[in-house]
Write a structure and sequence with these properties.
heterodimer, A: 294 residues, alpha+beta, Rieske Iron-sulfur Protein, five-stranded antiparallel sheet, four-stranded antiparallel sheet, 12 strands, B: 451 residues, mainly alpha
């Protein structure tokens, strides 16, 4: 019985060695060296054979008697007392304890503060003004990801376009837009946004006001009488915004409407910004509603 | 040979008495005591594969154009960080194997810690004198979640960017200090200062691993110095004497075998089961998003919580006090960790039991703990499943918003129900135990009388 178990363990160790050598060989052969499956199989196989060999050893070959030990003493009252005494007596020679305690506390606090303060270099902390910044200004043209201007006639209904400010950094939170075209008769924009959507073309910030993901989904009804209205949807937590009603939140967790960018069509037929966004772009912070997009 | 080696070491370190103690240290035998070991071995695999990856990864957001062998991305502008991970995947020999093994190990590491935590909780192993050990374990779990998040965030693929956007929004949502906090961590409004990549990198490969490693050492030292808990054994002084297999020769091959098994399974997964195929996501830009890429499983509860909250910000007039992501992204996890952290203290208070406990409870032995624990677990699991509501929509065409409303109701109804049910089951089992005990006693007596 014991001899048989020894044979089994030896065979398993040979198999382990075989797999490990195979791994080295596979690695050395260029074609196989890039074959992740074969290499994972060889290395994983070697370790699994080793594991089984060790477990058979544990179960069959080594002494596995059970021992009984005392649990350690729950506590050591004498030593506790001795420590307390040593600490208590350490200050016996001091006469002005309060003065020294105050001074030491002050020194410790000041050194601590001095060591922590450089952390403020990580980022400007005091002003939240930069959080309101966007690159959009009146007259800026809307361009696609290759820098080509979007013309009004490029924007078709039931479709979804991404636009950026011409010449600005596209990777700012205030840059990307979603542009869609709806039937002007269906729009319910507030009175102060009259003229923001020429020919029914609407532009909203593409950055969700909930958690800053890009609004990458456009729900558009295939059969209008029964299916819900067009909506802009964020793929992270499914905040759903109504583009025909000034980007208000229909469902999902977003706490603020999607900021809208006013547009106009220039004489060449190209879409341009008519100003900055209707509100701060991107996720909210305490006080976000107190300012405007700048 | 052994004698000479031991003498050499003892003369130089005086460690022989200590080593003798280590060899005879006893391990009580139960399969569930191995869960923590699985986590430890996954951590070892993480460090080993992680060091290998740092030899090739370039934590830089400098722009470059891809000219590597992966055709669909050729000519695409991207950052060096993303490009170097593509190179690890396609050009470094064994690079993809190591990268995928690293990612799998992270998933298994967190899973092992969570299951280990459940074992510790439901058997009452966190009670004095092991409450400090338990708190260190909780701290490690928190750090591990952040560490894993940083790991896939610094690759700068589309999934990284979307995850970071959410992280930034959660940081920004902290009441009053959020705006400052977000800009302190990111250095500038999102996507932040280019140095942010270096910050993530040093945190992921140095600061967090060092802290987690130190806490593991502390955790294990405390486990060893107070010795392992054990289940009650009839006819023995289970609370005074620990019974088990000694480290050597009994336990060593088992533990080493488990280590080899964990590493083996992780390499098999890394070789055979694709994980986070970053080349499919593409480089990140603020204006890009997808719902095809899913983050690691252990973030599911936070995604679920972010989705479950109805749409409102807390405002006073025109002043925004609490932005929405705060509830799901910050308060919810802090609340769960808070409950877990104060539990040992709260239980001591309510049961007035301040004594030492070396013997484990079976879940039925402490009905209230088991019932409340099951209630909280149900709540967290429900929120976790909300994180997969969009997948359920895609796979089974169940309307997404309907699902969210069902989950909202379930989150209120199901935890109390599960608590009540668990309490009843525990009490029923206790009663069955008592009847069994009485029956055995009576049978013993009648047998004695017959004799």
């Amino acid at each position: 019985m014991r001899r048989r178990s020894e044979t089994v363990v030896a065979m398993l160790l040979f198999a382990c060695a075989g797999c490990a050598i195979a791994f080295v060989v596979f690695y050395a052969i260029d074609r196989l060296g890039r074959n992740t499956q074969v290499m994972g199989l060889a290395l994983g196989g070697a370790l699994i054979f080793l594991a089984v060999a060790l477990m058979v050893t544990a179960a069959r070959l080594v002494v596995s008697e059970e021992l009984e030990h005392d649990y350690p003493e729950p506590e050591h009252p004498e030593e506790q007392q001795a420590i307390e005494q040593v600490v208590a007596e350490s200050g016996d020679r001091l006469t002005r304890k309060r003065l020294l305690k105050t001074a030491a506390g002050l020194a410790g606090g000041a050194v601590g503060a001095a060591l922590v303060v450089p952390a403020a270099s990580l980022g400007p902390v005091v002003s939240s003004a930069p959080l309101y910044d966007t690159p959009w200004r009146r007259g800026l043209r809307l361009v696609d990801d290759k820098g080509r201007p979007w013309r009004a006639l490029d924007i078709e209904p039931k479709n979804f376009y991404t636009a950026y400010p011409e010449g600005a950094d596209r990777d700012l939170i205030g840059s990307p837009l979603v542009v869609i075209r709806l039937d002007p008769a269906e729009l319910h924009l507030p009175a102060d946004r009259a003229g923001w959507a020429p020919q029914g073309i609407l532009a909203y910030s593409k950055v969700c006001t909930h958690a800053a993901c890009a609004i990458a989904l456009f729900r558009t009804p295939k059969f209008e009488p029964t299916q819900p209205r067009p909506a802009l949807v964020c793929p992270c937590h499914y905040s759903t915004f109504d583009p025909s009603r000034a980007g208000e939140v229909i469902a999902g967790p977003a706490g603020r409407a999607l900021p809208q960018l006013p547009l106009y069509v220039d004489p060449a037929g190209v879409l341009r910004a008519a100003g900055n966004f209707s509100g701060p772009v991107g996720p909210s912070w305490s006080g976000v509603r107190s300012g405007k997009a700048t | 040979m052994v004698r000479r080696a031991v003498r050499w070491l003892d003369e130089r370190s005086g460690a022989a008495p200590f080593l003798k103690g280590v060899l005879r240290y006893v391990f009580p035998d139960h399969w569930s005591f191995l869960l923590g070991e699985v986590a430890l071995y996954a951590f070892i695999v993480l460090v080993a594969t992680g060091v290998y990856l740092t030899l090739f990864f370039e934590p830089s957001l400098s722009k470059t154009v891809y000219h590597g062998p992966y055709v669909p991305l050729q000519g695409v502008e991207m950052t060096d960080a993303y490009r170097s991970v593509l190179d690890i995947s396609f050009q470094v020999k064994a690079g993809l194997l190591i990268r995928q093994t690293h990612h799998w190990a992270a998933n298994v590491f967190v899973a092992a810690i969570v299951v280990h935590l459940l074992r510790i909780f439901f058997t009452g192993a966190f009670r004095k004198p092991r409450d400090l050990t338990y708190l260190i374990g909780l701290a490690m779990l928190m750090l591990t979640l952040l560490e894993g998040y940083l790991g896939y965030s610094m690759v700068d693929d589309l999934l990284s960017g979307m995850g970071l956007a959410i992280g930034y929004s959660v940081a920004l949502s902290a009441p009053v200090v959020g705006g400052a906090l977000g800009r302190l961590i990111w250095g500038a409004p999102y996507p932040g200062d280019p140095a942010f990549e270096s910050r993530m990198y040093i945190a992921h490969v140095f600061v967090f691993p060092i802290i987690i490693g130190t806490l593991i050492a502390l955790h294990l030292t405390l486990v060893a110095s107070r010795h392992h808990t054990q289940f009650r054994r009839p006819g023995r002084q289970s609370g005074r004497k620990v019974l088990g297999v000694p480290m050597f020769p009994g336990q060593a091959p088992r533990s080493l075998g488990l280590m080899a098994a964990v590493a083996g399974v992780l390499f098999l997964l890394g070789g055979l089961v694709q994980i986070n195929p970053i080349w499919l996501w593409g480089p990140y830009h603020v204006g890009l998003g997808t719902n095809g890429a899913q983050p690691d499983w252990y973030l599911g509860w936070l995604i679920g919580a972010l989705r479950l909250i109805p749409h409102f910000d807390v405002t006073i007039g025109n002043y925004t006090l609490v932005p929405n992501p705060f509830w799901g992204g910050m308060l919810f996890p802090l609340f769960v960790f808070f409950i877990l952290a104060v539990w040992p203290w709260a239980e001591r208070r309510f049961t007035r039991d301040r004594s030492f406990h070396n013997v484990l409870d079976r879940p039925r032995d402490a009905p209230w703990r088991t019932a409340l624990g099951a209630g909280v677990l149900t709540f967290v699991l429900l929120v976790f499943f909300v994180g997969s509501a969009d997948r359920a929509f895609v796979s089974y065409q169940i309307d997404y918003n309907t699902q969210i409303w069902i989950y909202r109701v379930l989150c209120l109804v199901l935890p109390p129900l599960v608590t009540w049910l668990t309490l009843r089951i525990c009490r029923g089992l206790q009663r069955a135990d008592e009847i069994e005990h009485d029956r055995e006693e009576a049978e013993g007596e009648s047998a004695a009388a017959a004799a």
